[in-house]
């Protein structure tokens, strides 16, 4: 909105010339989302606490400490992140860019699904909300709609192919199978972040790290000069997603202020599903889906731990981990919550650096 208002005036007012630059608007998006979080956060948290009357229901089969330390903490804090992201993106992004609307649509769409799930939990006072089949179906509908839209906007041959990192020109043709692959990326990333969100600050910082990396990737992929130099696939218009990524970084920072141990609010599925979906959608647009598996490797590890636990128990009756997802395993081993969270942050940072190296190692 501000971009469209101020950009025409830049020829008459020199100071407004900064609005032309993607880097300035990305920085402005970060600060705007952060300010929105700080202003709205205290009011929203108090509102959620009053409405939920007891906070997020805690799993009876979870770590015993959660029943004591986390009881009464309100959930649905992801609404604060969504509000900050949406406001900041609408203010600073070029709203004529289709990719901005697609990614924002996935983020809000997955957020609505998560909100319904959270609402059922707090109203029924149960740790289980929406049925898994219904949640998965709704996610697939949103992701498939977005994937079809993205495929129409991507240039040939990128619209139906899979780009492989570490190789200059390797594109694997998938045809319409790419739509299914894109849906799996978005839905998989969404649920992977959801599984990781189990301790104060555990999920939001790795998300912030990953989206920061993809903010840089969108800027490079959307620039013909930089993409040509790095020999990565050029996607016209994708650079505008740097503003969205900046808004997500700012919104995540603002949420972390309130989610830092001991958390005043949990993001709930409202936040985790939407943030993961956003990561997946950005990776599909920029043709860096496989790089997301590296940059978001922490989320992959958490998901794999759950899969391994379930398969092992069904086949052998034995559990590989003391509890899944992985962070609960270390809780059961006696690690302090801050120790787990900070060490997982370090792992996320290392994986992000490895993911960034794929931009040059070709």
Strand order of the largest sheet: 1-2
Strand content: under 5%
How much helical structure, as a percent, in the residues? 55-70%
Please compute the radius of gyration using only Cα atoms. Answer: 20 Å
What's the overall geometry?
A: globular
**Structural class of the secondary elements?**
mainly alpha
Q: What sequence of helices (H) and strands (E) makes up the elements?
A: HHHHHHEEHHHHHHHHH
Number of strands: 2
Q: How many H/I helical runs?
A: 15
User: Could you say how many structural domains there are in total?
Assistant: 1
> Assembly type of the shown chains?
single chain
Mean pLDDT: 89
Structural account:
Strands 1-2 form a two-stranded antiparallel ribbon. It has one domain (2-357). By secondary structure, it is mostly helical. α7 runs antiparallel to α11 and α12 (289-295) packs antiparallel against α15 (337-357). The protein has 15 helices and two strands. The chain has helices at residues 2-6, 22-52, 64-69, 78-92, 98-124, 132-153, 177-196, 204-221, 224-230, 241-259, 268-285, 289-295, 297-316, 326-332, 337-357, and strands spanning 161-163, 171-173. 67% of the residues lie in helices and 2% in strands.
